[in-house]
Amino acid sequence: MSQKRYWKGIEELENTPEYQQSVANEFNEELPLNLSDNLLNATTPRRDFLKFLGFSTLAATVAASCEMPVRKAIPYAIKPEDITPGVPNYYASTFVDNGECVPAVVKTRDGRPIMIEGNTLSKVTEGGTSARMIAATLSLYDKTRLRQPHVDGKPVDTFDAIDQAVINGLSAGNGAAYLLTGTIISPTTEQVIAQFLAKYPSAKHVTYDPISYTGILLANEASYGSRMIPNYMFDKAKTVFSLGADFLGTWISPVEYSKGYTKSRKIVSKDIKTFEMNKHYQVEGMLSMTGANADERATCRPSEYGKVAAALHAAVVTGAAPNTGSKNLDKLITKAAADLKKGNGLVVSGSNDVNVQIIINAINSAIGANGTTIDFSNVAKNKKGIDADMVALVNAMNAGQVGALLMHGVNPIYEYFEGEKFAAGLAKVKTTVSFSDRLDETAQKCKYVVSDHHWLESWGDTEAKANHISFIQPTIAPLFKTRAFQDSLLKWSGATTSYHDMFNAYWVGKLGQATFDQALQDGIIEPATPSISGASFSGNVNDAIAKATAIKGATEYEVEIFQTASLGAGGAWSNNPWLQELPDPITKVAWDNYVMMSPKTAKEKFDAELTSINQVDPKKRVLKVTVGKKEVMLPVIVTPGMHHNVIAIAVGYGRDKGVGMAAADLGKNVYPLVGYNGQTFVYSADAKVEKTADFYPVAVTQTHNSAENRPIIYEYSLEEFKKNPYELIDERREAIEHYLIAPNEEHHEGHDAYGKGDKFDAKKFEEDFRKNGTHYPVHESMGLHWAMSIDLNSCTGCGACVIACHAENNVSVVGKDRVIKVQEMSWLKIDRYFSGDPNDPDTIQTVFQPMLCQHCDNAPCENVCPVSATNHSSEGLNQMAYNRCIGTKYCANNCPFKVRRFNWFDWNDADCFEDNLYSDGRRDDINDDLTRMVLNPDVTVRSRGVMEKCSFCVQRLQDGKLKAKKEGTPLKDHHVSTACQSACGGGCITFGNVNDKESAVFQDRYVNNKERLFYMLESIHVLPNVSYLSKIRNTDEVMNGSEKDEVYKQHI
Amino acid sequence: MFKRVSIIALFAVLMVFSGFTQANAQDGKALFQANCASCHNPVKDATGPALQGITGRAPSTEWIHKWVRNSAALIASGDKHANEIYNKWNKTAMTAFPSLKDEEIDAIVKYVEEYKVPVEAKPEAGGTTKEADNTWIYVLVTIILAILALILIRINKGLHKVANTEQGIPNTKDVPLKRNKVFIAITGILVLILAGYWMVNGGVEMGRQQNYMPKQPIFYSHKVHAGVNQINCQYCHAGVNDSRQAMIPSTNVCMNCHKQISEYTGEQLFDHEGNKVDGTAQIQELYKYAGWDAAKKDYKRDAQGKIQATPIKWTKIHNLADFVYFNHSQHVNVGKVQCQTCHGPIQEMDEVKQFESLSMGWCINCHRETKVDFKNNNYYSIFEKYHQEIKDGKRDGVTEAELGGLECQKCHY
């Protein structure tokens, strides 16, 4: 077992010379000097010496004569009742983006929102978050946002001129008026729209989603008689089968689904005999984040989704053996069908094809999912767009039949598959209005831009799930001269009330003032026990099967267009530097989009392999991808787990400079590659792929700060684990047995000293190792001892924790160039490891491992610091005093986990020297006075030349301790949480005082999950304060160490 | 025997009783200063009336209880006495104190009735106990001795020369002082040490501002407010219990009292240069910032009814470096540290200056010496070892440093 090896990338697997060099070369940059022999041999001339002496004396004199600046302390003129400077206020609100909606709690300090966490009162998301949701604070302070309304691309000072012109345009009657919006999930906004449509009877409302779910909506209409998306209850599912749906990352309501999904993956190993873990099957073309979490996974072409769905349907209904042409796939379908039939199954598909979705409905109906794992009374309202309506609108625009077009939440010139056609049509519309917050691709071409507030500045309500209301409360007064979209519509409808009044009246009328006030404070109104109901399937499944299986891929390659978990469909997120620098969960690429391709195809067909040029070297070969008449040129990123004939490219890139400095001209826009089948948009297409002679640098972080093949992950299959839960304990014992006995003691007690099986005394085992594994005296730990436990089984790799860490700790963004040079600053990264055979995508298994400072009690970094800038606290923190650090980087060299980050440049203008700021023309807006409002005032902004790393959110710990002291109670779990912990939707991070036997982290380590507990590189006796719980995969075969595992084979 | 016991018992009871009453008056003072002193003075009219004699004026003790807890309700109930007072004081509403218990209000009343204006201790004439500074005598003596030594050396040399000439020994040539190598070396080393000391000290002192006393936009005297009028610090610096910032009060807090107090009638004020300061003019200055129209006795408001106030741009005196985290509530609320410990005798300062160096060494020193409230605050119950040691008599308390108060990340993060 100890021979298990995981690999982060092919280069690590094959251990190429280039890779070895890159690992040895920790700070991946050449010296900025031309070191010739002459220079090194030259003696310093006397005159130079005198010059330097003179200069340094002068500099010292200037520095010493620095005077303290006169600072002002300006109190409020009239202090608002509810603000105490220095004390944060929390407001319940709701994150909304393209119909996606997550109840949130926003932390504001001195009137500005600086941190977003999940609202734990909501039973839908239970405090879950996503990377985008947390990064919304940075988007609020985006410098590119429009500061006033615009006419013809030029700023105007008042709304009045625009209001009159738009009203004139709407009433002119020279063609129909259209209101084009993304999915609206707000009941009151729907009322506003109704009022608007009543005022202009000829006007129509078209809903359009850039990533369309029309397939599901129409399929449900055909199957159940109503256009809706049912309520998928992943928490109730024992078997989940996903056909290309990235439900943990981007599909419909990912935060909600992740929460449900991870619930039955949080194994309590104490009760493993009776524990029921869900089993997740995934069939897909590309390797998605959801696929990476699957227990069993097989690949197929996206055009074969119909075939796979039909085969599964047959296997479920008739028990027919599947024949899809892929052995792995057939095996998986047979197994899945058997599991699904056991009850509590749930089948979902990411396909936008109506027929595939009808087959999926039929399967769900056949396995009895309706009413058990699928609920039809609290339907999801996140997506409502019907593609044909949009296509009809564009045709009408081009035919000159549209007189006025108002657009909210959409950017069709960028995200519509025929953006140019839309632009041509838009030119024929007389009155065009955009409510966009910036001059994006579409807003530039609109006559009027009346920016809507950011959601953090707005009032509002959401009903993303029927009967489940979540309110939006403003957390800051509008920063700019913007106006609520609803207010604009009301104004143009001739109404005199404001939206806020209407909103109040609506809810007070519905709930009464007291209930409404309480609901605003809680942020939500949800039924105590939602009623669940089923529905009977009445679609024509045979017809659907016939149509779905008729689809055939015509070319060798198919391209899949997908959303990344960080940027989603694009929108304003493309200009969010935090999200841009968040590496993709699978490829670990930041700041670009690219062609994902299987290693075999890349090597054999495109000479884009790894042993030579393509992996360690940031320069990747550029491929030309042609779909129909459209082509894009993008670099290739070799990704294990991709179907050999499938390539995948993300949307959200290739933006206009109006979107912002960080987004402009980065990557390529692949929305034009989307197809339309006459009914729905199709996010995969037949493609021609050609090799070019060009190379393009890409920032891949996957092998940065490598642990170089040391055993750092433990993974077991569920069956294996149930059979012998104590395997890991035995392995740990074996590894450190020698160090458990004091040197002068006789080896008499031996192996059984700590008890066998469930009697194993994990605490004593650790204490003995702590004491006897070293010659040095052991420090007594009294009072508090901070500790973290990370459950690898419930980490989905989504990256919300990484963004939360950025937001909480003022972690710098360094930009693409510097990421390439391994200078990224993220304190917390999620390492992604593969196992399996890279040439067989169906064998690839992926593990995510959050990696942060382990706060070792016997830390190697502390001993080597010449100035004691990093040292240990009595509470177990490995503390970093920035002001003492002189930047030797010895600590980073000596850290076995490679979690220390050095400020190579002045990223944030934090230096006292002027004009020292690093600038790359892309991430620079982050240093604007406006953008800096996002900084957490409790955390120092680090300057150039100092080391930094995870602090366990020490500012929160200090605050929690203070809270407990004021209450006069011992500190308990509820007093403290780290930013990553509260961001984690899967709840995989447990944190607290391990000296407290009641704390969750103590329970996790020594009571409930001691069988799965392990420490990174335990045997080197650095005594980390971060522990991990092993990954349990609900599969027959864990690839790592199996005969299909390439690395394992190499080792035996 | 029995008699003795009963006498002791009686004595004990008496002691307890007198102790109790004493504690009562003590509480009254504390309660008065915490809750009432910002608007009331026992013997002088302020924002509210002078309180001495209230037991005679008020209809009953119950009436006082009701009034204190919620005067608005009492006024609304049509109580005659309540309405009289309300109208007499220009309909200024008194803050309600619903949480004060009967006994507490009684204690305040007791304190107010027993209050005597403290007699100012006049310095006795000629009784300066100030220690005379003797440094100059030492310096003088040193210089005289040094000159004496120099003269003696010269005489010694002269005599040597004369002696040598008489004995016919040739005299070595006199090396002038500026060429004397020993002298040059010693001087050089001395200069280096002094320069080094000066530079290092300068470096260490960089950014420190002990005794910094900038001119402020309004001559606000802490002496008049906190000293003479005994206003509780926390009335204005309300953040001190909850926040890292003590909070400089906004102008509307000033106006709570200064709506009534528009003239300064106390002792003549002087600034640190000895110039006379007109207190009333300073209050007028405040009115400008607060948007208060003293003639109309009302705020100036804009079209939306918003008060036209502008914040006062005070010059910040206590500047901590950005990389230091300091939390007032930690020290005041939890640590029970007095304001004066760090800010000096603020109640005696007309103009505030930075009293302490606010250097890290100064902080650390206090953390080394200060004992935490170990027994009473249950937070510390987790430090079992220390509790055991206290029980065993091995230690009498636990200092902040022993709980990790000297560690970097207590203040730097």
Write the layout of secondary structure elements.
The complex is a heterodimer of chains A (1052) and B (413).
Chain A: H1 10-14, H2 17-24, H3 37-41, H4 46-64, E1 72-73, E2 89-97, E3 100-109, E4 112-118, H5 131-140, E5 150-151, E6 154-155, H6 160-171, E7 176-181, H7 187-199, E8 204-207, H8 214-224, E9 229-232, E10 239-243, H9 254-263, E11 279-284, H10 289-293, E12 296-299, H11 305-317, H12 327-341, E13 345-349, H13 354-366, E14 374-380, H14 387-398, E15 402-408, H15 412-415, H16 419-427, E16 431-434, E17 448-449, E18 460-465, E19 468-472, H17 485-492, H18 499-511, H19 513-522, E20 524-525, H20 541-550, E21 557-562, H21 577-581, E22 589-590, E23 595-597, H22 599-606, H23 610-614, E24 619-627, E25 630-638, E26 646-650, E27 675-676, E28 681-682, E29 684-697, E30 699-700, E31 715-717, H24 718-723, H25 727-736, H26 762-772, E32 786-791, H27 800-809, H28 816-820, E33 829-835, E34 845-851, H29 860-864, E35 870-872, E36 878-880, H30 890-894, E37 901-902, E38 947-948, H31 954-967, H32 979-983, E39 989-993, H33 1000-1008, E40 1013-1014, E41 1026-1029, E42 1031-1033, H34 1046-1051
Helix pairs in contact in A: 5-27, 7-17, 8-13, 11-12, 11-13, 11-20, 13-20, 14-16, 18-19
Chain B: H1 2-36, H2 54-57, H3 61-69, H4 71-76, H5 80-88, H6 102-114, H7 135-167, H8 181-205, H9 222-228, H10 233-236, H11 251-258, E1 269-270, E2 276-277, H12 279-290, E3 292-293, E4 298-299, E5 314-315, H13 328-334, H14 339-343, H15 360-369, H16 384-391
Antiparallel strand pairs in B: 1-2, 3-4
